[in-house]
Amino acid sequence: MSDNATGSPVPRPRSARVHGLPSYSGPSTATNAIAPAPPVSQSAATPEQSAENAANRERLRQFQSAHTARFLQLASETDFEYGYTSSLDLFLQERIRENHSITKEWLNAIFIDGFESVPIATATLRALAHLDYALVAPQGPTIALSALTHRSPEVRECGIRAFESWGTLDCLRILKSVTRQEPWMQQYLEKVISDLEEEHAAHAVAG
């Protein structure tokens, strides 16, 4: 089934590059040791900050109550295809327009709560990969990075694909610090890194 449940596929403005799968050592005994700094108070938040934190928690709770069931429904119905806009993509774009910051926290909560579920984890990653990096950072790349530790190869691959889709210099830096044990995934990872290096080198020359 196509991931565009509402009609013909809508091309993404940015082409998708999707490749086939081929201490602490104890107290000092020195006589001139510097005394430790006093602990920082944990109750330094002002009443205004505490009120704002409480308000943000309530906004997130309302967001979860209003939208999580619909997200999970669309995630289960969507057959994702990189480079095309799905009904889930459109749903998330509406949520971002509604409240950008809370949407990112909400997606992070969905991913954490559903981390053991491969369908939920992959759907969250694929949906994030279809959004602009500037819209989803820092939660998006943090989610994708944590996906690289998942027991499922499918989730780990989706984490790499998310970085590939965003394609920023930050994504390139992160991917260059990653290694995979599976030969096919390591080959795919190296291909993504090579493509991003070439793309950014070309941009640097053109700029």
Please characterize this protein's 3D structure.
- The chain starts with 46 loop residues before the first helix and ends with a helix.
- By secondary structure, the chain is mainly alpha-helical.
- It has helices at 47-77, 87-98, 100-113, 118-129, 133-136, 139-147, 153-166, 169-175, 183-206.
* Distinct helical segment count: 9
Number of individual domains: 1
**Rg on CA atoms, Å:** 21 Å
Task: Tell me the helix content.
Answer: 55-70%
**Total DSSP E strands:** 0
Morphology call = globular
Main beta sheet:
none
Return the structural class. mainly alpha
Task: Spell the H/E element sequence.
Answer: HHHHHHHHH
> Could you tell me the mean pLDDT?
82
Q: How far is the first residue's CA from the last residue's CA?
A: 41 Å
How much of the sequence is in beta strands?
under 5%
Low-confidence stretches: 1-35
